[in-house]
Amino acid sequence: MSRNLTADLAADLRTRIVDGVIQPGGKLPSENALIDEFGVSRTVVRSALTRLQAEGLVETERGRGSFALTPPPADARPAPGSRPVASLEDRVQLLEFRIGVESEAAALAARNRSERQLHALRKALEEFTAGAAHPAHAMKADFEFHRAVAAASGNPFYSDCLASLGPTMIAMPRTRLMTGGEHDVSEHFEQVVQEHESIYAAISEGDGPSSSAAMRSHLANSRRRLRTPATGHRTDS
Question: Which residues form the HTH gntR-type domain (predicted)?
Fold first, then answer.
C-alpha cells in the first residue's frame, strides 16, 4: 500500500514538472505541505522525492528544499527588468530571442575562439551527450554548451546575457522529461546531440556563416519541438 502511495505521489509531482506547473528551477512544496495535501506519511513523501531524484527530475539541497531539475544558485537574484518565463508562449518567445542573439554569438565564436574555449565547448558537449538518462544533468550541460559558445564569441555582453537567463533558458519538451519507459526519447535526444555536434564542428572549423546557420537551425528546431502537439496531451519534440 505504501508503495502505491509513493508511486501516486511521485506521479503527481512528475506531471506537475513535465507540464510546467512547477517550472525548471522551481521549488517543490515542502514535506509538510505534501503531507497535508496528500494525507500521507513523511516516509511516503521522502520515498517519492527519492524516486524523482533517481529519475533526474528533482534535486534536493540540505536546508533549501527540493527543486525541479536545476536549483537556482543560493545567491541568485532576478536580473533588473527580467521577465518571468511562466507559460509555453513565454518559452517560445524566449527561444525566438535566443535565435537572434546566439546565432550571431556562434558566428563570432568561429572567428574568435581560443583552443581553451574550444576545449570547454567540447567538454560541455560530451557531458550533455552523457546525460541522456538524467534530465537535470543534461539541462545543466546544455546550458554550459551555449554559455561556452557565448564566451568564445569574445564579446562579454553575450556571456552576460546568457548568464542572466540562467539554466532555465533551456527548453525541455515533455518527452525529454518523461521516464520509466513511458515514451521513447532516445531518437529526440540523439537529434539534439547531432545539432550540437554541427554547431561545434562549424565553430571548430572557423566557419562563421555555418556556425550561425547551425545555431539558428538548432534553436528553430527547439522552438518547433516545444510547440508541436502530438497524441493526447503530449508535446512531442
Answer: 3-71
- Give yes or no: residues 92 and 64 share one domain: no
Domain count, the chain: 2
Q: How many CA atoms lie within 13 A of 162 on its CB side?
A: 27
Enter the C-alpha cell of residue 44: 511516503
Q: What is the mean pLDDT of the chain?
A: 85
In percent, the amount of the chain with pLDDT more than 90 equals 52
CA gap 221, 237 in Å, rounded = 9
CATH number at 96 reads: 1.20.120.530
Q: Is 233 exposed, middle or buried (0-12, 13-18, 19+ CB in 10 A)?
A: exposed
Tally Cβ neighbours within 10 Å of residue 148: 24
Question: How far apart are the C-alpha atoms of 52 and 68, rounded to whole Å?
Answer: 9
Do 206 and 109 share a structural domain?
yes
Q: Which amino acid is at 191?
A: Q
